[in-house]
């Protein structure tokens, strides 16, 4: 593992078990901060750890309850190596990459925040290695993925031309997503373009391997449900965020999730679709308050068990 230091975060590079160089960021809580559960952020299908920058800065620098946050770039995304075999862009392989990072950093009982695909990986880890997860936040994802939304995503992943400028990148991001996010300003679209694309010679470069589209195209019909994996999260506090305009996670699925996990907390992110951007103050504060409350609960339980 290697790392480089920055003002807000450190870049971490580590090697996957099949030899790829993978990237993560560490947003460290200030030295001397009171103990708080660390956070591991897992992004969506074609996204990367930059999606969590605003959330990670807010959580790690909060004056009352700072906590260390890690954000990952899966293989083929962000600053991680692209995989020469597109078949490895699969949930089982990516789950192993995440678990290797957990082992390398010594994370245990962490708070997992999973957006879309990251939430699927979180559910798989809950079933495969339960002690890794102490708290979970699922961002616009559940055990049932709506076919309409999956079809929409499949229609463009790996099929879009590369923008010729950053203005073009912002326009493309807006045109592709404005039905899901009708109220975003041009400045926010420009910021999202910088998150979603890499930069090369001061111009937009692919932020993900287009071959991820091949892995998605082999799906035939609706994805299988993940209710057994979801129920593995019943042992931990859980917050589910749903975008008001989401075509991936329905309100009916959230209701069934709550029936199976009665202690689950929920929040709807207004005027956003799949998946909520985790940039607005109300949503960030919802997550922060949830994590702080689970810290208090864990400390209380530890105090009781000590007697």
UniProtKB/TrEMBL annotation:
Superkingdom as given in the UniProt entry: Bacteria
InterPro entries to which the protein is assigned, alphabetical: AB_hydrolase_1 (IPR000073), AB_hydrolase_fold (IPR029058), Carboxylesterase_BioH (IPR050228)
**Domain AB hydrolase-1: where?**
39-280
Key word Mitochondrion present in the record?
Answer: no
Q: Which Pfam families match?
A: Abhydrolase_6 (PF12697)
Would I find Zinc among this entry's keywords? Answer: no
Using the record for this protein, list the coiled-coil segments as residue ranges, or answer none.
none
**Gene Ontology terms for molecular function:** hydrolase activity
**Keywords assigned by UniProt?**
Hydrolase
Record's protein name: Hydrolase, alpha/beta fold family
What organism does the record attribute this protein to? Hyphomicrobium sulfonivorans
